[in-house]
Amino acid sequence: MAFGIYSLLEAVVLFLNAVCILNEERFLSKLPGWGGSQVHGFGEEPGVKTQIFHFIRSIKTVMKYPLIPMNIFIILFKLIFG
Amino acid sequence: MDYSIAGGRQPRGRRVASDNPSSTLGGGDMQENMYDQYGQPRQQQAPPQLFEDTSGQNYDYGNQGYGGMNYGYPPPGQPNQGASGGYGAYPGAIPGPQIFQDPLVANMAMQYGQSLASQGREYVDKKLEKYVSMSQVKYYFAVDTPYVMKKLRLLFFPFTHSDWSVRYEQDEPVQPRHEINAPDLYIPLMAVVTYILVAGLCLGLQERFSPDVLGMQASSALVWLVLEIFVIFATLYVTAIQTHIKSLDLLAFSSYKYVGMIVALLAGLVMQSLGYYCVLAYSSFSLVVFMFRTLRWQVQGGAAMEAYSAGNKRRLYLLLFMSGLQPLMMWWLTKHLVAV
Secretion signal: which residues (chain A) (predicted)? Predict the structure, then answer.
């Protein structure tokens, strides 16, 4: 039951870690549709896959460095308070 | 919010006024009174002149002077004291020119104070506006009692309501108090607070209460709400659906479920788990109907887009997902509170 705000923070950090750890060369580039920026016509809605790849790429770009202090903070917190 | 800042800043302007020497006149509080209402300069110019005339004919002007004073100042209690003090101390203090100067100084001080106040207000407004626009939030709290009653009725009996569209007026949605279908945040806010209190009551009746339980309930309710909204946002993003729904709308819609939860919990208090499950089933069913119908208008944008939109099926799935999530959340957030 004890799913408080701190747990949510932890969960978010773990999720972001999981996205950031996906390796560009070894894993993502082998997925079909990665990298190839498909040209879609005007007014055409982008597909689900495109959106997900876009999302992953954004997280990898933006969150790479902020995640380091966040992880350090959480690890220290765990070490001290259990 | 605006007023508090203005109130906080104004004394600075006023202190400058009282720092200058002529305020030892003894009419200090009277002057302050005068500058408070300095918005109409013509009327306020009159009292100092009245002073100057008085200095010549002190004797017979007294009565008239009081009359004039009372006329100039709306609150009758204070000016009387101020006026009598002023007359008494006047001959000993600095004469005419200083008094003539005084309103000017005070005027400048007043303007300085006002500019400070407005600067501070602008600053805070800008900072706040960055995160949440206050005018937008105010829209969600523009409710009145008939609206709340009707909305609650709609939440529990949405079956006969036929028109679910929100009216627009000059590209702005009509305020909730005039439009029953518009989302508001008043009911959700009250419902969340009440839910936490009712949860405390339930736990107390089962001898499981301790003060920190309330905080835990609040925290976990908040977290589940955030998670739900986040999931819906992620779905909206991934499926690339364009809707009219604003984020605050989403917050409002996804926290109407607390109303049903409160009723289910109260039923659980009265009739144990049987009553709880019956009421929960009914209220979640009516909430699903309510959500589905309201959101169908919001997501699909009325009937206009239905004809040629390609992502119609996606929209339908999104609707089913959003309204199907509600009973699950209602059950999940209340099941541990009911006596087995």
Answer: 1-18
Q: How many domains does chain B have?
A: 2
B-contacting residues in A 9-38 (Cβ below 8 Å): none
Give yes or no: residues B302 and B195 share one domain: yes
Kindly state whether B226 is in contact with chain A, defined as any CB-CB distance less than 8 angstroms.
Answer: yes
Q: Is B103 exposed, middle or buried (CB count within 10 Å of its CB: 0-12, 13-18, 19+)?
A: buried
Parent domain of B52? 2-131
Give this complex's ipTM. 0.80
**pLDDT, tens digit only, all 340 positions of chain B:** 444 444 444 444 444 444 444 444 444 444 444 444 444 444 444 444 545 554 444 444 444 444 444 444 444 444 444 444 444 445 555 555 555 567 777 888 888 888 888 888 888 777 777 766 777 888 888 888 999 999 999 999 988 888 888 887 777 778 888 888 888 899 999 999 999 999 999 999 988 888 888 888 899 889 999 999 999 888 888 887 777 778 888 889 889 999 999 999 999 998 888 999 999 999 999 999 998 888 888 776 655 555 455 567 778 888 888 888 999 999 998 888 887 6
The nearest alpha carbon in chain B to A9 belongs to B223
pTM, rounded to two decimals: 0.64
- β-bridge mates for residue B172, sequence order: B169
Query: What's the Cα-to-Cα distance from B113 to each of B6, B10, B100, B106, B324, rounded to whole Å?
Result: 9, 6, 21, 10, 56
- In chain A, residues with a C-beta closer than 8 Å to the C-beta of B240 are 45-48, 51
